[in-house]
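Input sequence (379 aa), recorded before submission:
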Amino acid sequence: QDGCSNAKLLMVGARYIRDHEVKFINMVKGILSDNNVEHLAQILDIQEEVLKFYMVADVVLVPSKNEVLPLVVAEAQAFQRPVIASKIDGIPEALDDGVEGLLIPPQDPDALANAILRLYNDAPERHSMGQNGRKRVETQFSHSGMTNLYQQLIDKITPDEAPSLFSEGASVEQRMSEKSRGTFSAGVTPEPGPGNEPLLVDMDSVIVDWDGAFLDRWLVNHPQDKELVRNRVHFEIEKNFPHDQRQEIIKTITEPGLYISMKPYPGAIEALKEMVACGIDVRIVTAPHPECAATCAAEKFEWISKYLGAEWISRMIITRDKTHVMGSILIDDKPVVTGSASPTWDHIHFEQPWNERHRREGKLMSQWSEWRQVLGMEK
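Predicted structure, token format:
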């Protein structure tokens, strides 16, 4: 009909769990049979692998009766497929009519048929809409795009005038301003706000002896490597070894129990508790290892509860990008901490062999007994 002699419909994701779902699928099959078009349509149940369906589609249909924001819209755009969808709920936020596809009224068979005919008969428009969809998903739904949107939202709800401790080139003493330090002697945690920005502290190789826990496992089979590990020059431990050993190193790093077994550095626990007792808003900011993120994060929480107490759990921030965490100072062993934002904090290196080339004068902590001196708070 209407010249669509070779059009084919592929319905993916049919469920047969609830009675109304079974009834609906049977109704659709009955309609196809009554109109003698069963050979032009295929109904498939839920699929684990959907790539092949996007690749064979010319147009993706989302004629929903009710929705929130279906992921299928963004997925179709990612594969440069034009989308015909109901103009309801969150769908118009992801799809502009005539740009990345077509929006139609819900439960309107004629509108759906006309939209299909339009794109069936216009291959250049299908191609153009597919390209537009790809551009949109890259800007609106990509990781960097979503991060930028969140950043814009945060910027709107923070004061227009940045606190003075964020100023370019401010010293550590200036960042731990008199206004902030004045609250420390009160013995209470200050309220968030300008002058009371958190002090951020990394965990691995700053609070805990990461290398020690690694060596406990590694030296069982490689007793000759102790000095190599303890005096390594690269932050990523695997880069200090021959390439053919890296898989074994990753296996060791991802062993369950590694992170909970780490011992605190001398004075670290006492120093952190002293900081909080002085009124400093301490936040432990740590990145889980990408090869075992879930296990690593869980063990880090367990470690904090074991050594610092359950009340410190609320002070934990797990993140792969520390540049988005607001604070005055970050104490971290990593040579250079980078990310997708311009950090508000000043980086103080916790002394380790691998950050020697990147240390700056006055921006170094060698041991936890120095924390008052480094922060300009000597008694």
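Checked by second reader. The longest strand covers residues 9-14.
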